[in-house]
Specification:
The structure holds two protein chains of two kinds. Chain A contains 17 helices and 24 strands. Chain A is of the alpha/beta class. Chain A folds into two domains: 260 residues, 3-Layer(aba) Sandwich (Aldehyde Dehydrogenase, Chain A, domain 1), CATH 3.40.605; 185 residues, Aldehyde Dehydrogenase, Chain A, domain 2. In chain A, strand 6 and strand 7 form a beta hairpin. In chain A, helix 2 packs across helix 8, helix 3 crosses helix 4 and helix 11 packs across helix 12. Chain A is globular. In chain A, 54% of the residues are buried. Chain B folds into two domains: 171 residues, no CATH class; 149 residues, Rossmann fold (3-Layer(aba) Sandwich). The two termini of chain B are 34 Å apart. Classes of the chains: A alpha/beta, B alpha/beta. At the A-B interface, helix 1 of A face helix 8 and helix 9 of B.
């Protein structure tokens, strides 16, 4: 069977402990993955030269990143003792995550875009100063002295299995000279391993990479050991780290579409955009909309969305029209569906998709379980389902007066506000609990490469310092 | 080694298995007679027998007859007067009480007189004099307080002619910190323990042997090279010890040059010895109980009367048979793989021990 080793300072390491990852449909093992004990992470951190990338300029590392983008999409790259083509990668990724093949390819293209547009990304993070300042340590920008030092000597990430696109978030760390230590998601070692191999093939020293499949204790150890990190996970996972400035937390997004008073009567023309925001990428991302908040027409909007989204069916992952992912663990789908049904027993919320479809949201295809898109209409904005997020296309439509909406929506990763109302826009602009704000009919999943997403990786890794040099006599 | 091979004693392994089984049956009869004799037994077992419709002294003739007893219940050790466990035959001797658990509520407690010393003296015979030199001093980098381990390691050290240095470490506090998610404080407390150990290691050059737990060994080796400090042997236990950790410890933490002796034991049973390291075992950590003083059986968790086949995983069932303590058929919180007798130990062993996966709430393991 295919074996995926850990990578310790770039060197493959076969552990005595291995976990098989299974095909979501057949239950057959696809690969066995070496699991490291937490001590390995601490030991490697102590052996890792945190200046291993300092010998390269940012420009050189960006060039390597661009080369890595091409290699990621086209090359046959090492995978344990064998080689992996891009097609192998896509098939393996779909096999263990249940994600449709088409979405796997689409997510790969996101990673390609980040790496091939790395200069735009880095300039977006650094706001356009001369990047050679990071090589030299200081320089002149807009007529003033600018100096930075890298506080995040080693960068780490505890990664999810839900959507490969998230790997584009840690990728710029290499161009910013930080060696990385990654803990992959249990079912998704494929993308970070392939990205690392692409970087190495592109000329980045292999010693700059650690890849540590491990358990919960190992994940905690990684977050403790590295200087700066990203953590992906549900509320229970991320809660202990929410006040730790060393850890950038990527929890549930609770992203939303907001209607202003001025645009809500034309809601019908936005239904396609809203439906896409809910269901794109199988509805598995934190940037998928999980709420539609509107001052009126809530029931009509919800019914229109239910009608549109109830057309989506469970299809095998290799079907060209597949739009939702199978659950790698069928029990999880059953539990989520039961949780929603339980909350629907509380007055004030109705599942309109179930009515429209005439079929339960929990669907099976062979051994696979799927959750079909679900639109809930909430009469009561305090209902337990009014502001929830799940790992499938799910959204609640909630009516709320405009003057209360900015506060009532709560923490929101992406808010798309369909409005021209200056006063409403101004209030939203002032909301600290909205991370990304789109004004106009912009899908929640549409990111711009030149702006940071959920935290600025450059600011996470670098600190500005006051700097003076004595003038030459 | 196959059962038909000849061992260093001149007997085939089959013959030795038979021999130790006879000794176990005889020892079982003696132990049951002692604990259920009104002149020598302890109040707990005498009261227990008074409510039985059968007489243990008559009906327990061989080890397998112990199945006539119900499984030993751990709450018996959490309730009542501790003196009900003191055998009348041991009256007047100095009594130790050792506890296990206790992060919340009343801990389990058992009395001890000489058992811990006997167990560790027997264990001492399995240690090499090169790795654990006679006269060498030890560092006990593990739990302090009412733990058997604290005194047992000190006795082991003294028995081998050394002086044992120890630290303050409260494992119950560590468990509380972990359960409440206060991981930063847990690491701070762990660092506090490691700092105490480092101070002792640097101050006392004759410390050549260490007892510690897997997590503390990792933390210690993050700070210092034990090889450079002159450590020759590490005796490790207290929590789960995986094959991967075993390999990592031998190859990396101990730099391939310090002897690593894993162990499995607890306050109730005593100390199991590990099968001597052989590359063929692929770093599996395999333990053998100190027969006939204690036995470990690997049983089907759903039918605990059934011992699983060799190579199968099951729950550990412990039986302790000493004059100080009789504990028949106690279902431990661990599971593992049943291993066949080997040359060093002609009775069943257990390997790859880990917390029992059948509990609804996972067990929290701290630094100890």
């Amino acid at each position: 069977m295919l074996h995926i080793p850990a990578l310790r300072l770039g060197q493959p390491y076969e552990s005595m402990t291995k976990v098989d990852i299974l095909h979501h449909a057949t239950g057959e093992p696809v690969a066995s993955v070496s699991q490291v004990n937490s001590g390995v992470i601490g030991r490697d951190k102590s052996l890792l030269a945190d200046d291993v990338l300092e010998g390269f300029s940012v420009a050189e590392l960006m060039e390597m990143s661009r080369h890595a983008a091409e290699l990621f999409m086209t090359a046959s790259l090492p995978l344990g003792d064998s080689k992996q083509s891009f097609d192998d990668y896509v098939k393996q990724l779909s096999a263990t995550t249940g994600m449709p093949i088409t979405y796997c390819r689409h997510n790969a293209s996101k990673i390609y875009n980040i790496l091939s547009n790395i200069e735009t990304v880095i300039r977006g993070l650094t706001r356009g100063f001369d990047l050679s300042i990071l090589d030299i340590g200081h320089g002149t920008s807009a007529g003033g002295t600018l100096s930075f030092f890298r506080d995040g000597r080693v960068f780490g990430a505890v990664l999810p299995s839900n959507s490969p696109g998230v790997h584009s978030l840690w990728a710029p760390a290499i161009a910013l000279k930080a060696p990385i230590m990654l803990k992959p998601g249990r079912e998704e070692p494929w993308t970070p391993y392939r990205m690392i191999q692409a970087f190495i093939e592109a000329g980045v020293p292999k010693e700059a990479f650690g890849f540590y499949p491990t358990d919960h204790a190992g994940a905690s150890e990684l977050l403790r050991q590295v200087d700066r990190s990203m953590l992906f996970g549900g509320s229970a996972t991320t809660e202990p780290y929410k006040d730790d400035p060393r850890v950038e937390v990527h929890g549930p997004g609770f992203s939303k579409i907001l209607f202003g008073e001025d645009e809500v009567d034309d809601w019908e023309k936005h239904i396609d955009m809203i439906a896409a925001s809910i269901a794109a990428n199988g509805g598995r991302s934190c940037i998928n909309a999980s709420g539609v908040w509107t001052p009126r027409h809530g029931r009509e909007i919800a019914e229109a969305l239910a009608k549109k989204l109830s057309a989506i069916q469970a299809l095998p992952s290799d079907h060209a029209d597949a739009q939702i992912a199978a659950f790698a663990n069928a029990n999880v789908a059953t539990q989520i569906s039961a949780m929603i049904d339980n909350d629907l027993n509380i007055d004030g919320a109705t599942d309109l998709t179930q009515k429209q479809r005439g079929q339960d949201r929990l669907a099976h295809l062979g051994k696979c379980a799927y959750l079909l898109p679900t639109i809930i209409h909430c009469d009561d904005r305090d209902h337990p389902l009014s502001n929830r997020e799940f790992l499938f296309p799910f959204a609640s439509v909630v009516e709320c007066p405009i003057d209360q909406m900015p506060t009532a929506i709560g923490p929101t990763l992406v808010a798309t506000a369909i409005t021209h109302d200056e006063s409403f826009k101004k209030t939203l602009m002032a909301c600290s609990h909205i991370d990304r704000l789109n004004i106009g009919a912009i899908p929640t999943y549409q990111l711009s490469w030149d702006q940071p997403h959920e935290g600025n990786l450059f600011e996470h890794l670098y600190r500005q310092r006051a700097f003076q040099v004595e003038s030459a006599a | 080694m196959t059962p038909s091979s000849t061992t260093s004693s001149g007997l085939s392994l089959d013959q030795r298995i038979e021999q130790v089984r006879e000794r176990l049956d005889e020892h079982t009869r003696e132990t049951v007679s002692w604990h259920f004799d009104p002149d020598t037994g302890c109040p707990f077992w005498l009261d227990y027998a008074a409510n039985l419709s059968w007489d243990p002294r008559k009906e327990i003739q061989v080890y397998d007859d112990l199945k006539k007893f119900d499984n030993f219940r751990d709450e018996w050790l959490r309730e009542g007067d501790i003196r009900r466990w003191v055998p009348k035959g041991c009256a007047g001797q100095p009594i130790y009480v050792f506890e296990t658990g206790g992060s919340t509520g009343r801990p389990k407690a058992r009395i001890n007189i000489e058992d811990f010393k006997i167990d560790y003296e027997l264990f001492s015979r399995t240690l090499s004099d090169e790795a654990f030199p006679k006269g060498a001093d030890w560092l006990m980098l593990g739990p302090s307080g009412p733990r058997r381990l604290r005194l047992a390691v000190e006795h082991l050290c003294q028995f081998r002619g050394g002086i044992c240095f120890s630290i303050d470490l409260d494992p119950r506090w560590v468990t509380k910190l972990i359960k409440s998610g206060r991981m930063a404080e847990m690491h701070e407390y762990k660092d506090h323990a490691i700092n105490q150990g480092l101070t002792l290691l640097r101050a006392h050059k004759n410390i050549q042997c260490i007892f510690t737990t897997p997590k503390l060994l990792e933390a210690l080796c993050e700070r210092v090279s034990l090889k450079k400090l002159g450590i020759k042997g590490v005796f490790c236990g207290g929590t789960q010890l995986t094959a991967q950790f075993h390999r990592f410890a031998r190859e990396e933490l101990l730099e391939g040059s310090i002897e690593f002796v894993p162990t499995y034991g607890n306050t109730l049973m005593g100390l199991a010895c590990h099968k001597p390291y052989e590359p063929a075992d692929n770093y599996s950590v395999i333990y053998y109980p100190p027969s006939p003083r204690a036995m470990i059986e690997v049983v089907d968790p759903d039918q605990t009367d059934r011992v699983v086949d060799y190579g199968e995983t099951g729950r550990a069932r412990l039986t302790t048979l000493t004059k100080e303590f009789f504990m028949p058929r106690f279902l431990e919180r661990d599971e593992g793989i049943r291993h066949a007798p080997c040359e060093a130990y002609a009775w069943d062993g257990i390997g790859d021990v880990r917390p029992f996966s059948g509990f609804a709430t996972p067990i929290v393991e701290g630094v100890y």
